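Final report, Chapter 2: Outcomes

The project's central promise was a pipeline that accepts a single protein chain and returns its three-dimensional structure in a standardized token representation, suitable for archiving and comparison. That pipeline is now operational. To close this chapter, we reproduce one record exactly as it appears in the project archive, with the input sequence first and the structure output second.
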Amino acid sequence: MKVSYQWLNQYLPLQEKHIKPADLAEKLARTSVDINDVYSPMDGLKKLVVGEIVSLEPHPDSDHLNVCQVKVSDDETLQIVCGAPNVQAGKKVIVALVGARIKDNVKIKRGKIRGIESNGMLCALQEIGFSEKIAPKAYEAGIWFLPDDAKPGDDVYPYLGMDDTIIDTDLTPNRGDMLSIFGNVNDLAAIYDLPNGFKTHQVEEDTTEKIEGQLAVKIDDTAIAPAYEMRLIKNLHVAESPMWLQIKLWNAGIRPINNVVDITNYILLKYGQPLHAFDYNKLPDHQLTVRHAKDGERLVTLDGETRELKAHDIVISSANQAVALAGTMGGESTMVDDQTTSIALEAGIFDPVMVRKQARRLDLHSESSMRFERGINPETVSQALDEAAYWLNQLAEGSVVSGRIVAAKPVVQDRKIVISVKRVNHVLGTALSMANIESIFVRLDFEVRSLDQDQLEVNVPARRWDIELPADLYEEIARLYGYDQIPSTLPSMTRTAGGLNERQTRLRASRHVLEGLGLTQAISYSLTTVEQAKRFEVEPQPTEPMMLDYPMSSDHVATRMSIVSGLLLDIAYNHARKVEDVALYEQGRVFLPDGNERPKEEEHVAGAVTGSMTAPNWAVKGTPVDFFVIKGIVDTYLANMAVAGKVEYVADKTRPELHPGRTAKILLDGKVIGFVGQVHPSLAKKYKIPETYVFELNLEAVLSADKRDKHYVHISKYPAVTRDIALLVDQKITNQEIVDAIMRKGGAFLKDVRLFDVYHGIHLPGNKKSLAYTLTYQANDTTLKEEEVNAAFDKVVNYLQATLNAEIR
């Protein structure tokens, strides 16, 4: 809320006590609410004075410019060329002298406009810093006219309220009482221990007629409107508001409209109580009803938009026709205009949750809805309504019909809260006496009485609806006593060294391994579409993913059951921006429904690679990633994670998202823990990505598996001996089967088996293939002899011939 220092000073002796605006803002920030800004509307402006247009004549070389003679002091008249359509002689105007600074630090210079000398500028409000949202519409296309009693040569700032200081406060939801001058005055009076001089005005009614029979209100359910009152004001004259009222509104960021609307906005700022004025003669019926809207019911609001309402919205209706959206915005059909002579004035409290929902759904957030959402003081509903009627009588010459309609009136009761002095001091770490605490509540204007030597009973008034518990009162004591006066103490704690447990250590190591292999970490949403959630499951399940009741958007409706889909979106994002080489991994949780209320959560790790893993240069060409590159990444990852069990890769053609000839299940000791393969070309086309290879592992299985105790391998200092062997085998026999057979019979000295050639061709029998391997033998403690290597090699050859029917080439 934009709080005027001068308005506060009307009720509190701030200047008398030499409390400056900056100090006041700093005190509020330390005690009550956050401060966004402290500024004066005249900041950055210079040499703006009152001028009087003595005469004007058309510009000889223009059809829209006028040459004005403007008196800026008793002995100085300036010639200024002006193009405003409303310029006229005899009016007091804003003059920017030569050398003046106006909005955006623009400097005014002496110059010629189409050959005619101009010594300054006649200004509109927008040109001296007023925003388009608050400048009165009547002057939006022209210059502003100052009051007739403005003296030429004076600074314009006091006439426009620009010499004020505005404190822009940022409220937390619990301090809705600070959305009014009334609330700010109460709080500052308590903070500074000042006399509270808040003033109200009592309405004078016209006793010649009564409101009964002329206006009635029915409320279907008082839960939606616990307070609702109305007054009837007749024979008023809609006109422009006086300057003091317009200044208060535009300094608070509200555009002045006319005296009727401006008075309702003035009361909103003063009391925090929104009001609404219906044109009494435009109401279809003078029996009003506060009710829920009908589903599909339509209302044209004051902004000219047709709103389709829902059954949980709240409306004010007349003759079963909605005429206002309660707590949010009035209807166009009953709006106050220049022909209005009688109004029905409404003050009420509406259900904050319903107001928030309808305002959010219709995107109709307003000053009124903001206050209804945060709470309204039930003590001042009638008071605000009466004061509005008073000003309508004073400023619009309206006749206030005797009596008011009270359709709903809440029971206003103080809340009694008992607190202990000992407990207060224990919580705050202070040594306050009972007298100290009582004095704080007296400053807050809370009734307080002692029950015994330790306990106090505090009566919290309804205007502080945020206080419900003893802890809330502790906070009030702390902030008024002064947070800076509370002793500083260090927290007591045990001297336990921090660190990561085994699981946390291995999870962190998992990320480091993948980053060391050249992959970059990505983080994607845990929420996705149903279709994407069901793709790339490590162990495909027939169940549907967990659905959200209130999703953020149509792209985030279900919890993910795998990570790969999110990585493919990242690949697509990069590819669309001409990034061809992308290698990403993500480690996070997936959510697997298991029939319970909450899904089962598992830690997974996944990767996606496209393009080349190495950037090409003059000596080395970039090599596109293939199945064996991504398989090598997984193999190295599992080795670095010290997995002790047997890891197998088994061809898999069952996954529709992956290429049937380039996909493998990953097994650990015979149990599926993941997959690796190429994204199916048809799915890649759907994602708009090039050839991409992915893997995903159930990290829970990796973490729970047996692991090797030692990670290092002793390097022998003795020479190695190699033997090459070429085998002719059936097409159905896999490389893994051959390697397993060789390792099984290779003996203690066999260190490595490497496939170096694969051949399919017309020179081989049908359904046969040739594979060539290099076998490396090495001992750790001696140099191997030829006969030892030959004997071990012969065992391998014999075993391959016997078990795989291999022919040695």
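Archive annotation: Residues 503 and 703 are 7 Å apart (CA to CA).
This record, like all others produced under the grant, will remain available to the consortium after the project formally closes.
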